[in-house]
Amino acid sequence: MLASRTRWGGGLWAVAVVVLVFGTGAAGARPAGASWAEVGKGVARGINDQGQVVGSVGTRSTSHAVMWQGGVTVYLGTLKGGLTYCAALGINDRGQIVGNCSNTSGTVVHAFLWSRGRMRDLGTLGGPYSNAASINAYGVVAGSSAAGADAPPQAVIWVNGAIQGLGTLGPKYDASVALGINRHNQVVGWSGTRSGSEQAFVWRGGVMNQLPTSAGLNSAATAINGNGQIAGGVFGGGRIWPAVWSGGALAVLPTLGASGAALAIDRFGAVVGWVKPRTGGSHAAIWRNRRLIDLGEVRNSPTIASAISNRGEVAGHAHVGRRSEAIVLFTSGV
User: Fold this and answer.
1) The model's pTM
2) Which of 8, 30, 286, 306 has the fewest Cβ atoms within 10 angstroms?
3) What phi, psi does 69 have (nearest 5°)?
């Protein structure tokens, strides 16, 4: 998703100093004693401070939204109307889980909220598509939906089950997608034009504003913490770079020489995602104080970190053989 849309601009951020820090940097080694635990088949997408991990388990023809907890895989169920191909994407500390379920052809996709053992269809803006990407501590959900079968996606939030469109960055933008939300109901994502140009945005107080960038680069914002620090990525020329926005300024994070992306951020500003060496597959990564820590591979297989809790626990997945393994780095303070 990160590489598919993005670009940025001024708005509220126009007066900010844009700081681009390119370069490979020196990658720190994973601390002794910090090792990945394989929690089961599948892909982990979210983790909360209770160590509950959510994601999906499946094959090319099936997908089940799941939660891994205490060594047990909990299957979350499906939605009515033949929406049985499901994936969980986010979880809050109350154990509320969001994601989406689709029919087997992918022509109908609906966002869901799972709470207290029950999966609820969150509905759409009127079309056949919606997706719930993130949920905050108060149960407000961020994602996207479409008003018709051929309509572009629009960033939305659900408050007490009611859907609200967030709009786009302006008249020339036809699409937007929300990917992250914090406890202040501040939302981040991307907004795109018909020509394929995209901008990362932050939505707060009912207003969507562009995030700053450098000329010629596209971008997406993927997550925001309670301090307003934002994770995401910028891309152009066939490459993706992990990035953070803090205090109105952009910093591009170091990689292992090739591409990378930042997918999640904790309350302390630690960022997780992936980096790719010049040769070989991706490595899960964490950046603390903008310093790269390479979390390495699992059984000589590529890894990606998708989520981080405020306890420093990291969740993601490894491509082991022909299947994905959900993995968690439970050691705090990496």
Assistant:
1) 0.90
2) 30
3) -150, 125
CA 98, chain centre distance (Å)? 12
Q: How many residues in the chain?
A: 334
Determine how β-strand 283-288 pairs with β-strand 271-277.
Answer: antiparallel
DSSP bridge partners of 264 = 272
Sequence spans of domains, the chain: 11-329
Of 69, 82, 117, 76, the residue nearest 99 (C-alpha): 76
* 25, 292 Cβ separation under 8 angstroms: yes
User: To which H or E segment does residue 323 belong?
Assistant: strand 323-329
Residue type for position 140: V
322: left (phi over 0), alpha (psi -120 to 50) or beta: alpha
CA dihedral 312, 296, 244, 239 (to 10 degrees): -160
Give the model's confidence band at 196: pLDDT under 50 very low, under 70 low, under 90 confident, else very high.
confident
Q: Which CATH superfamily is domain 11-329 in?
A: TolB, C-terminal domain (2.120.10.30)
Q: What is the mean pLDDT of residues 217-242?
A: 94
Strand partners for 114: 97, 119
Residue 274 bridge partners (DSSP): 261, 284
